[in-house]
Design brief:
The protein has six helices and 19 strands. It is an alpha+beta fold. The two termini are 18 Å apart.
Length: 325
């Protein structure tokens, strides 16, 4: 293997072996031969960046045939990234190079997730760059409906749904917010029932550097909010006024300890909320956004007349190998 990520996500061998649980044999019966192992192509791509080791890394696994249900979660836990994507053929005759429609599922290390932007972008990048898919637009059949990814010269554009947010009473979530960010000034709070995200806009007196350096305590949040209403916390601030330098319309950070992700480096799916929110606040349909995690990532947002949102970003594939499951 030519490239490897550092840290706990590093894969030092070309093949990573996973134990697949099997039912124990009955007492007294002869030991059966172990099931034949499946070799799966697997990749790691950094999404919403043009530079390796920036943006948000996602694992992408290409499935030639059906995988045992439990194996999806086992592999996601083994990869230990915020998301692992599983791209599957919809028909036996489909081909990763010629076909344009695929099934797609996303798993965090803890659970299956209903919508993920950066792992969708990573999946499209793998098909376009590594499988040389001949189509300009790919369609993914997912838990959130059909999602499209189209190839452009300067990136990949995701065609995603728009999710509205509604005013949220501060006192109902006061304990959660204060546990996360203390006495940081809050300007607006919105809630998305579709995605179960709590969107917290910080005071306009704060800027990018404040958001980047803000210490967010995510550890107690799942114990404070146990009803299932909230599965993600988004912090956002308004961008700086336009000028000579390349600035952004808004900044954000995203936290999802309820599904095992303390902080997500760059989150495409949260921009299905942030896009329409800031579009209304700024009176703009086209915006440029930056997610202020340690790795950081850039997203181009375009609110379309048909009620959907285009989210464009780059992707860099940093690892390619074979996983034995």
């Amino acid at each position: 293997m030519n490239k490897c990520l550092s840290g706990s996500n590093c894969i030092q061998k070309e093949q990573t072996k996973l134990e697949v649980k099997r039912a124990p044999s009955r007492a007294g019966s002869p030991q059966t031969e172990p099931a034949r192992k499946m070799k799966l192509p697997i990749f790691i791509a950094d999404a919403f960046t043009a530079t390796a080791f920036r943006g948000n890394p996602a694992a992408v696994c290409l499935l030639e045939r059906t995988l045992d249900e439990d194996a999806h979660q086992d592999i996601a836990r083994e990869m230990n990234l915020s998301e692992t994507a599983f791209v599957r053929k919809l028909q036996p005759t489909d081909d990763f190079t010629q076909s344009s429609r695929f099934g797609l599922r996303w798993f965090t290390p803890e659970a299956e997730f209903p919508l993920c932007g950066h792992a969708t972008l990573a999946s499209a990048a793998v098909l376009f760059q590594k499988r040389k898919n001949t189509n300009s637009t790919l369609t993914f059949v997912t838990m959130s409906g059909e999602l499209k990814a189209r190839r452009e010269e300067d990136g990949i554009v995701l065609d995603f749904p728009v999710y509205p947010t509604f005013p949220q009473d501060f006192h109902e979530v006061e304990d959660l917010i204060k546990a996360a960010i203390g006495d940081t000034l809050v300007q607006d709070i919105r809630y998305s029932p579709d995605t179960k995200n709590l969107l917290v806009r910080l005071s306009d007196s704060y800027d990018r550097s404040f958001l980047e350096s803000l210490k967010v305590n995510t550890e107690p949040l799942p114990a404070i909010e146990k009803t299932g209403k909230v599965r993600g916390l988004i912090l956002t601030v308004k961008g700086e006024p336009g000028g000579q330098t390349a600035l952004y319309d808004f900044y954000s950070r995203c936290f999802a300890p309820w599904v095992g992700v303390a902080e997500d480096p760059v989150t495409g799916s949260t921009h299905t909320l942030l896009g329409p929110y800031w579009s209304e606040e700024l009176g703009k349909k086209e915006m440029r956004a930056f997610q202020c995690s340690r790795r950081g990532g850039e997203l181009d947002i375009n609110l379309r007349p048909d009620g959907r949102v285009d989210i464009k970003g780059g992707a860099v594939i940093v690892l390619e190998g074979t996983l034995t499951a």
